[in-house]
């Protein structure tokens, strides 16, 4: 018997161990590498959770801030009588509290936006919130109307910082795919402020006194300031360098085109709504109370539009495409409301669709402007606010003259000029900017 035969007789190899039961032996370096990967994943997960929490806290601060700005801007419409008694002036003089605020906002916004591109946005927003709170307290205890008007101008300057800076911060610290939904959520805060401001002011004035609404807005801004102190310093913000182009962005058609488009369709849409009550009164013989109640349909639509901005962007694939849908709905609803012989329910549906279009369009347009303007986003977004106010101040007087003479069709033609040019610019912008459209 050969050696190999003997070996084969006395040696039988053990049955192979299944692969899934075999222990894998890694070199020490490999084990260390795997450990680092596991630790890195755990740290990344924790950072992602912390970042999401910070984002939510930031959105709460920004929503609260613009809520009280919106409430403060519109609450005076319910307080003109008590303010006239308090300061011993007629309603025309008291109206300067509204005009001075709007004028200061419109004039100062671009320059303060320019400044916000060159300092820390978070700190500037916190300073503006504190200034707005001081303004409210000052007006509540102002001894004369002149001092109250001066303080109201100061409040307009503070609000000219708060609103554009809030949206600029969103574009810098929130992930790109969530810009439209985040801006819609913050704009919803302003929508609630505009809708609830007059009602809250009226109730507080009746139950407590005319100072109460101003003190409430001051308290709200102080709370937002305190929460912001804990939240905003953790957020990185972009500060423009001395080499930044400044106002040279005005030569960039990719910025000025959507800027002008938004100012036209948004400003005209708001102008048409401001005069919609007169159309309802003339057509359905409604009293003031019922006209105010019917405007609730617009507010509901506005809130739905704010919340649906992100979803609309997801469905259409881009903000540019969503703006085409928004401006089309806006033109259709404004035209139908003013020209068609609709029953009251149909008019309310038009107002709701009208509000939805503006509510969804504003966040999308703001997202486009913030993305394209780069480090100039502060001044660009502030200029958008000013342009919106300029359009309102231009369209409302012209259209109101037509409505006063009973010519709804002429007023509608004024609206359609602004809406049509804005929609055409929006469509052209989408064709130029979207991939494969050239």
Overview of this structure, please?
The protein is mainly α and 438 residues long. The chain folds into two domains: 181 residues, Up-down Bundle (Growth Hormone, Chain: A), CATH 1.20.1250; 193 residues, MFS general substrate transporter like domains (Growth Hormone, Chain: A). Helices cover 80% and strands 0% of the residues. The protein is built from 17 helices and no strands. Helix 6 packs antiparallel against helix 7 and helix 13 crosses helix 15. It is globular. The protein starts with a helix and ends in a 5-residue tail after the last helix.
Core attributes:
438 residues; mainly alpha; Growth Hormone, Chain: A; 2 domains; globular; MFS_Efflux_Transporters; membrane; cell membrane
Fold topology:
Elements: H1 3-10, H2 28-74, H3 80-87, H4 91-94, H5 96-116, H6 121-140, H7 145-173, H8 179-207, H9 211-231, H10 253-274, H11 276-284, H12 288-294, H13 296-316, H14 319-339, H15 344-373, H16 377-404, H17 408-433
- Provide the CATH top-level class of the largest domain: Mainly Alpha
Q: Which stretches are low in confidence, meaning pLDDT under 50 for 5 or more residues running?
A: 1-15, 42-50, 240-244
Distance between the ends = 88 Å
* Main beta-sheet annotation: none
Rg, rounded, reads 29 Å
Mean pLDDT: 82
Number of helices: 17
As for the CATH topology of the largest domain, it is Growth Hormone, Chain: A
Strand content: under 5%
Structural class: mainly alpha
Order of helices and strands: HHHHHHHHHHHHHHHHH
Q: Provide the number of structural domains.
A: 2
User: What would you call the quaternary organization?
Assistant: single chain
Membrane topology: Multi-pass membrane protein
Keywords: Cell membrane, Membrane, Transmembrane, Transmembrane helix
Main location: membrane
Protein name: Arabinose ABC transporter permease
């Amino acid at each position: 018997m050969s050696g190999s035969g003997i070996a084969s007789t006395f040696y039988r190899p053990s049955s192979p161990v299944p692969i899934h039961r075999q222990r894998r032996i890694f070199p020490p370096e490999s084990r260390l590498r795997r450990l680092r990967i596991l630790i890195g994943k755990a740290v990344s997960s924790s950072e992602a959770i912390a970042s999401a929490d910070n984002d939510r806290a930031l959105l709460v601060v920004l929503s609260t801030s613009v809520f009280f700005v919106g409430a403060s801007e519109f609450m005076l419409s319910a307080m003109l009588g008590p303010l006239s008694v308090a300061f011993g002036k007629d309603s025309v003089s008291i109206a300067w509290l509204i005009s001075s605020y709007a004028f200061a906002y419109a004039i100062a916004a671009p320059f303060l936006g320019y400044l916000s591109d060159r300092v820390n946005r978070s700190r500037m927003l916190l300073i503006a919130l504190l200034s707005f709170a001081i303004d409210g307290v000052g007006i509540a205890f102002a001894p004369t109307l002149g001092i109250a008007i001066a303080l109201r101008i100061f409040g307009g300057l503070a609000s000219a910082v708060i609103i554009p800076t809030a949206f600029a911060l969103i574009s810098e610290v929130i992930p790109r795919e969530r810009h439209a939904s985040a801006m819609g959520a913050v704009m919803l805060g302003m929508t609630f402020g505009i809708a609830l401001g007059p009602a809250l002011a009226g109730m507080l004035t009746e139950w407590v006194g005319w100072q109460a609404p101003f003190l409430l807005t001051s308290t709200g801004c102080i709370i937002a300031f305190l929460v912001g102190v804990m939240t905003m310093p953790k957020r990185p913000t972009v500060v423009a360098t001395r080499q930044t182009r400044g106002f040279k962005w005005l030569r960039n058609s990719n910025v000025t085109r959507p800027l002008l488009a938004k100012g036209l369709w948004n400003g005209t849409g708001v102008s048409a709504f401001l005069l919609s009550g007169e159309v309802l009164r003339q057509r359905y013989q409604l009293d003031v109370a019922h006209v105010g109640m019917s405007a609730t349909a617009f507010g509901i639509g506005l809130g739905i539009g704010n919340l649906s901005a992100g979803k609309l962007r997801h469905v259409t694939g881009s903000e540019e495409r969503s703006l085409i849908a928004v401006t089309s709905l806006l033109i259709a609803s404004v035209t139908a409301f003013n020209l068609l012989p609709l029953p009251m329910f149909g008019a309310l549906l038009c107002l709701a669709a009208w509000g939805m279009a503006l509510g969804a369009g504003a966040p999308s347009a703001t997202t486009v402007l913030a993305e394209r303007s780069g480090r100039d986003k502060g001044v660009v977004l502030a200029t958008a606010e000013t342009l919106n106010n300029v359009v309102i101040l231009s369209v409302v007087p012209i259209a109101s003259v037509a409505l006063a003479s009973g010519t709804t069709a002429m007023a509608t033609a004024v609206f359609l000029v602004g809406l049509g040019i804005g929609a055409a610019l929006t469509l052209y912008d989408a064709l130029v900017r979207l991939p494969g459209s050239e």
